[in-house]
Automatic annotation (TrEMBL):
GO terms for cellular component: ATP-binding cassette (ABC) transporter complex; cell envelope; periplasmic space. The keyword Membrane applies. Residues 106-477 form the Solute-binding protein family domain. This is Putative oligopeptide ABC transporter solute-binding protein. GO terms for biological process: peptide transport. Keywords: Membrane, Signal, Transmembrane, Transmembrane helix, Transport. Belongs to the bacterial solute-binding protein 5 family. It comes from the Bacteria. CDD domains: PBP2_NikA_DppA_OppA_like. It is found in: Cell envelope. The keyword Transport applies. InterPro entries: Peptide/Ni-bd (IPR030678), SBP_5 (IPR039424), SBP_5_dom (IPR000914). Signal peptide: none annotated.
């Protein structure tokens, strides 16, 4: 996933990052129909403002993408938000890439790869025609140095440490040969979503936990684009890498522009000030349908939108912390809550049909790993059954119709929600009504920054969500005991402090299973186990609802090629392939559901809110890929 995650889309500005070995900062994917719900007006004006009129004056063709999430870090060792990882896919190459047609692994920086007979040693051939944007050759030593730094430096392992946790040794016997030795077989070796950085630029960094790679421009990379400028909470500007081995992008600039308000972003699209907008609400999408020179793309999404419980925050050393409601330690109570959620109503009324009703953990877009509970296993909407479970758990109604425990205290919960995501508030109103009928009180705690209370375990329930990659290992790993923080002061990779030994055993088996069918079976068993424990409940799989100007973009690649999304892909295909509307060049894969690329400056308008050195772990529901 690029992990990640729009609640994975913007839980925002936090205190100085707490770090834990091998932990990935997680971003709670912001709920909502889109990858990042666009929310209040443009936080910081872009200077110079990338506008279509400006592009026309100087002849520069700029692709401007309006995003609803700010960059958490330009360091690939720290970033977890979808907007940030999307930028990194443009800046740096990974060993492998995903084919935009069907998501299978294809060559990236590595031209081929093969395991030893015991699958404990993997050898990658590094392409000889890749150069860093400063002219130096890319070699296997750059890749070896990147992985070794993650293996030996806790700060460097913040975002992607789970990929190297099983690595025993990484070497570069020659400029074009990379060798990775494993402790035990690992099925994700063709899907290592780790940006490879230039050793000569990064080896002087002293503290990887604080270095955000945002002071020196242009930033040296080897991807299709080079970052030339950045302003926190405002934009990221990129230019084409003319020496990119696959060919340079066709736009003169790419800009990711941060809008805190979704309506403001839509207005900018109508005016031609931006080329593309993602994370549209149903009302926004409906308003854009039929508009001249604007195309709406409504594609099956790659994320889930869920409710997470706080089952008792704890660290690996066994110390408990936070103030989660003790009743949520009881599986009967958790099940009762989820039996009281009408998922069909959420899909019909909140997402207005731009979503699929939630079942298992992995979205149906990924057919190999998609799982649904059986009729007898499913926790379908059943308020009467929910009431019986609460009675059995010892929380019966008093004379006022309120559920109370043996201590006589009413059963009331606090629920974290994203102030920038209208879907959280809308779903929250329904939950108040449904759970209120069960005798349970609910208070929504809607914040711009949900990170601090989340990390501290100071919540009862929360809106959650992640974007899922073609290989689901990362989103599976965030529910393991190993993902817990080492101590209460550390930041682990855990999503919501789940630690279940049976789940962990299944996770270890699937990670070592190379047979695709057998591995898929194990993953589905994990989903079944996660479902039965009731620590979280998937309410919906939101569509990727986005729009772009056809008078600025001639063609653009969706992923997957058929009925796919443009923004937040598992690769750089959309922005690399985008062709200006006035161009004669229509080469490169493209789709009618293309991306909107503004003919302005390619600036990714994203930024960290406040002190940028503080890595934010939680975002909105689609932050993490």
């Amino acid at each position: 996933m690029d992990r990640q995650d729009p609640h994975g889309t913007a839980r925002f500005l936090t205190r100085l990052q707490r770090r834990g070995r091998g932990g990935r900062l997680k971003m709670l994917a912001a709920s909502g129909a889109a990858a990042f719900g666009l929310t209040a007006a443009l936080a910081t004006p872009l200077s110079p403002a990338p506008q279509q009129a400006q592009a026309a004056d100087d002849g520069k063709k700029t692709l401007t993408v309006a995003v609803a999430q700010s960059v958490d870090s330009l360091s690939p060792f720290l970033a977890t938000r979808l907007v940030s990882t999307s930028v990194h896919r443009l800046m740096y190459e990974y060993l492998t890439n995903y084919d935009p047609k069907d998501n299978h692994a294809i060559p990236g920086l590595a031209t081929d790869w093969k395991p030893s007979s015991d699958k404990l040693t993997w050898t990658y051939t590094i392409r000889s025609n890749s150069k860093w944007s400063d002219g130096k050759k890319v070699t296997a030593e750059d890749a070896a140095w990147t992985f070794n730094k993650m293996m030996t430096d806790d700060g460097a392992a913040t975002a992607n440490g789970s990929f190297v946790g099983n690595f025993e040794k990484v070497t570069a016997p020659s400029p074009t040969k990379l060798v990775i030795e494993l402790k035990k077989p690992q099925a994700t070796m063709a899907a290592l979503d780790v940006p490879i950085v230039p050793k000569h630029e990064w080896e002087s960094v002293e503290d990887f936990s604080k270095f955000n790679n945002d002071k020196k421009f242009p930033i040296v990379g080897n991807g299709p684009y080079v970052v030339t400028d950045y302003k926190a909470d405002s934009y990221v500007r990129l230019k084409p890498n003319k020496s990119f081995w696959r060919g340079a992008p066709k736009f003169d600039e790419l800009v990711f522009k941060y809008y805190k308000d979704g309506d403001a972003a839509v207005a900018a699209l109508k005016k031609g000030e931006v080329s593309f907008v993602q994370g549209l609400t149903p009302a926004q999408a409906a308003a854009l349908e039929g508009q001249s020179d604007i195309k709406v793309n409504d594609a099956p999404g790659r994320r889930f939108y869920s409710i997470a419980t706080n089952p008792g925050a704890r660290s690996k050393d066994g110390e408990k912390f936070g103030n989660g409601h003790p009743s949520l330690l009881d599986q009967k109570v958790r099940k009762a809550l989820f039996l009281g959620v009408d998922r069909k109503t959420i899909v019909d009324k909140v997402f207005q049909g731009h979503a699929v009703e939630g079942k298992g953990y992995i979205p149906p877009r990924f057919t190999s790993y998609y799982w649904e509970p059986s009729d007898s296993q499913e926790w379908a909407y059943d308020p009467k059954a929910a009431g019986r479970l609460l009675d059995e758990a010892g929380y019966k109604k008093n004379g006022d119709g309120k559920r109370v425990g043996k201590d006589g205290k009413p059963l009331n919960y606090r629920m974290l929600c994203h102030a920038t995501d209208p879907n959280d508030a809308a779903v929250g109103k329904y939950l108040k009504e449904w759970w209120g009928e069960l005798g349970i009180g609910l208070k929504l705690n809607c914040l711009d920054n949900v990170t601090d209370p989340w990390l501290a375990g100071e919540y009862d329930l929360a809106f959650d969500g992640w974007s899922v990659n073609p290989d689901p290992d990362f989103v599976l790993s965030i529910h393991t005991c190993d993902a817990l923080p080492a101590t209460p002061k550390d930041t682990g990779a855990t999503d919501n402090f789940i630690c279940d030994k049976k789940y962990d055993q299944l996770y270890a088996k699937q990670l070592a299973e190379y047979d695709e069918a057998k591995r898929a079976t194990l993953v589905k068993q994990m989903e079944s186990r996660l479902y039965d424990t009731g620590y979280m409940s998937v309410m919906a799989y939101p569509n990727a609802v986005e729009a772009y100007r056809t008078d600025q973009i001639k063609s653009i690649t969706t992923m997957p090629e058929k009925a796919g999304n443009i923004y937040g892909q598992d690769g750089y295909w959309s922005w690399w392939s985008a062709t200006p509307a006035d161009s004669d060049d229509s080469s490169g894969s493209s789709s009618s559901t293309g991306v909107v690329i503004g003919i302005v400056a390619a600036v990714v308008v994203l930024g960290a809110a406040g002190a940028f050195f503080a890595v934010r772990r939680r975002s909105t529901a689609e932050d993490r890929e």
